[in-house]
Design goal:
heterodimer; A: mainly alpha; MetI-like fold; two-stranded antiparallel ribbon; 2 strands; 70% helix; 1% strand; B: mainly alpha
């Protein structure tokens, strides 16, 4: 994000009562995002922590069975966490080559005219709602996978990975392309001057120079994939057993929350457990976003852009 | 000669990546459009569902989505605009601005289902709004707030500093300058952000799962405290609830097409306007 400080003359006259009141109103309203973010954190802690009276945090995180409605209920979310990571990893395998490859194509090979069309189209495709992807997964990809791989159920980690990967591709492509754009022209020219061809320049100069920008794109894509709810809810299969392969039906964290919250009675252990899962999810995506932010800040400094 | 081959091979790979991306995304749009067109009719768009979801139309879901979008924008726009104005026109100290900026960035990265839980705990339970249009709109409003703020900020930054200074030099107060000079100039950019947000809100499902949505209500919602049918939730519910699998899938195709068309049209409009503005500024 480019940021130019756009503050104007501080000591400007106009310190009338009305001006002061208006200024106060804006100041208060500006803190809304902070209030909501804190509100989310407080709610997650307040509603999530009570579960740790029933199970210890370690047993919660590393317990292998998630049977919240049995009696006695078991609250081990390891299968859910592993499912989330499995599906995200799969999505990464799809969206990394597609997204970064497309970005390189846009940046290196597409002519100005092609780029002027493709760039907004990719951006537009990023806005397709996730429930539409999920629906496509259910009606098209599921029967296809079932037939091709001769599976008992078509809804599995592989299905969710494919859909999530395609879904994250436009996002990854857009951000990676921005990063490639920041690489100064002089880098390329220097490389051409010592006799490198375009491919050598691309792989040995441009990609390393834009490397951290591209990693930011991938991390943000991952963050989007792990937090995505509707697609995994619809196509991942929903089994809360420990996942063993990409062909197993799985239940990622987001799907567990979305599927079970409707049935969990308010204030029950199950209810608190779901909030605790949301808390873990929040922490994971928070870490992803912070890492992405740090890397992109370094990247800007490295290329001499304003931090 | 060998390096030349490698280069050609490499470029071919990049081309294939781009082609595959467009192919897959095109495939999704093609499937939804071709199957969806079969069920879309005037009746489908204007009638209420009949015969336990197997006949009739999806008008209440369309109307419900419009209500939710309207509510979310009514809530998020004043708040987001005020925040952007503060950051761009007032912003006294770097520290405060940094904290606000960091919270905006992080709010933008929170998974949508977490917003749903927040809405459930705060609006549905704590404020006793119940599962209602009001709860859903507020939840969606918070979700879209970062998007509104960042696009409004971009619009405000694009207003040349010299215009502000000219206004000050004529003796206008800060608020007078913002109201009469800055906002009118930034209006198209702010509108673009609002349109983008509409596209985003219309397609979100997870935040309204527990705060607003119902699979079926009789007729149209009566007040902001009633449950509401919404297009994205309706697609999900048609695929997971009910007993008439085939008829429901057909209707879900229709709903997906309406939603896809709505979102792509709205976002396309916003991207087009923004593209035009940017080329004007440069």
């Amino acid at each position: 994000m480019q940021e130019k400080p756009c503050r104007v003359l501080y000591n400007h006259p106009g310190k009338t009562m009305k001006e002061k009141i208006i200024r106060w109103v804006f100041t208060v309203l500006a803190f809304a995002s902070l209030v909501f973010l804190l509100g989310i954190v407080i709610v997650l802690f307040k509603e999530g922590l009570p579960i740790f009276k029933i199970v210890s945090p370690l047993n919660f995180l590393f317990g292998k069975s998630w049977y919240p409605t049995y009696s006695p209920a078991e609250f081990g979310i390891l299968p859910l966490i592993l499912s989330s990571f499995l599906v995200t990893l799969g999505a990464l395998i799809v969206c990394m080559p597609l997204g970064v490859g497309s970005a390189l194509y846009l940046n290196e090979l597409a002519g100005n005219r092609q780029k002027a069309i493709l760039k907004p189209v990719i951006e537009l495709l990023a806005s397709i709602p996730s429930v539409v992807y999920g629906f496509f997964g259910v009606v098209v990809v599921t029967p296809y996978l079932q037939k091709t791989f001769n599976l008992p159920v078509g809804m599995c980690a592989l299905n969710a990975s494919l859909i999530l990967g395609i879904m994250a591709t436009p996002t990854v492509c857009s951000i990676a392309e921005d990063a490639l754009n920041y690489v100064p022209h002089s880098f390329r020219e220097a490389s051409f001057a010592v006799g490198a061809n375009r491919w050598q320049t691309l792989t040995q100069v441009v990609i390393p120079a834009a490397g951290s920008g591209i990693s930011t794109a991938i991390i943000l894509g991952m963050s989007r994939a792990i937090g995505e709810t509707m697609t995994v809810l619809m196509v991942a299969g929903g089994s809360s057993a420990m996942p063993r392969s990409f062909f197993d039906p799985v239940r990622p964290m987001t799907a567990a929350i979305a599927a079970e919250m409707g049935e969990a009675p308010m204030g029950s252990d199950h209810y608190h457990a779901l909030f605790a899962i949301a808390l873990i999810l929040f922490i994971i995506t928070f870490i992803f976003n912070v890492v992405a932010e740090i890397i992109s800040r370094r990247f800007r400094i490295k290329l001499g852009l304003s931090g | 000669m060998k390096t030349k081959h490698i280069q050609n091979l490499g470029f071919l790979c990049l081309f294939l990546c781009m082609a595959a991306t467009l192919f897959f995304l095109g495939l999704i749009i093609y499937f939804i459009t071709s199957r969806g067109m079969r069920v879309i009719s005037w009746e489908f768009l204007t009638q209420v569902p009949r015969m336990s979801m197997t006949q009739g139309g999806v008008a209440p879901a369309i109307v419900g989505t419009l209500y939710l979008v309207l509510g979310a924008i009514l809530f998020a726009l004043p708040l987001g605009l005020a925040c952007a104005i503060y950051l761009c026109e007032y912003s006294p100290k770097g520290f405060v601005v940094n904290i606000i900026r960091i919270s905006i960035n992080n709010l933008a990265g929170v998974p949508s289902v977490v917003f749903g839980l927040f809405g459930l705990a705060v609006f549905v339970k704590f404020f006793h709004f119940g599962v209602s249009i009001l709860s859903g709109s507020l939840t969606l409003g918070i979700l879209v707030l970062p998007l509104i703020i960042s696009s409004a900020q971009e619009a405000l930054i694009a207003v040349p500093q010299s215009i502000r200074e000219a206004s000050f030099s004529l003796g206008a107060t800060r608020w007078g300058t913002i109201k009469n000079i800055v906002l009118p100039n930034a209006l198209p950019g702010i509108l673009t952000g609002v349109i983008l947000s509409i596209g985003r809100v219309a397609g979100e499902t997870a935040p309204i799962l527990f705060t607003a949505a119902a699979f079926y209500i009789r007729g149209y919602p009566k007040s902001v405290f009633s449950e509401v049918m919404a297009l994205p939730y309706h697609i999900y519910a048609l695929m997971t609830e009910g007993t008439h699998r085939d008829e429901q899938t057909a209707i879900a195709y229709g709903c997906s097409l309406i939603l896809l068309f709505l979102v792509l049209f709205v976002s396309g409009l916003a991207i087009y306007i923004r593209q035009k503005q940017r080329s004007q500024h440069v």
